[in-house]
Design brief:
With 107 residues, the protein is an all-alpha fold. The longest helix has 19 residues.
């Protein structure tokens, strides 16, 4: 069996910020679905230089693929999804992720 890829496709994939190189040895070690979701999201952005991105709480909840109606408040989301995901990704991946929550509005 022999196969090949068009040179244009190879160039696109090599320099793309859409297609990510995921390390299977890292993926297999995750114990949390939120870690995997965070890892995939970061890998998709890895080719973006100086990537700092802001998300609303709902956008970040979607990024982590939190089921609708679960982990509704920030404290619960942070404790059950965000902090465990950060710990695993930072411990297993060859890059570091940091999160700086920003409170908006009055509370």
């Amino acid at each position: 069996l022999t196969y090949g890829f068009d040179k244009k496709l190879v160039a696109l994939l090599r320099h793309s910020s859409i297609f990510a190189k995921l390390e299977l040895k890292v993926i297999y070690q995750f114990t949390s679905k939120y870690s995997l979701a965070l890892y995939e999201a970061i890998c998709r952005r890895i080719n973006l230089h100086g990537c700092v991105q802001e998300f609303t709480l709902d956008e970040f909840r979607n990024l982590l693929r939190v089921e609708q109606g679960k982990l509704k408040g920030f404290a619960q989301l942070n404790q059950k999804a965000i902090q465990p995901a950060l710990l695993e990704v930072n411990g297993l991946a060859d890059f570091q992720v940091s999160l700086m929550p920003r409170k908006q509005g009055s509370a």
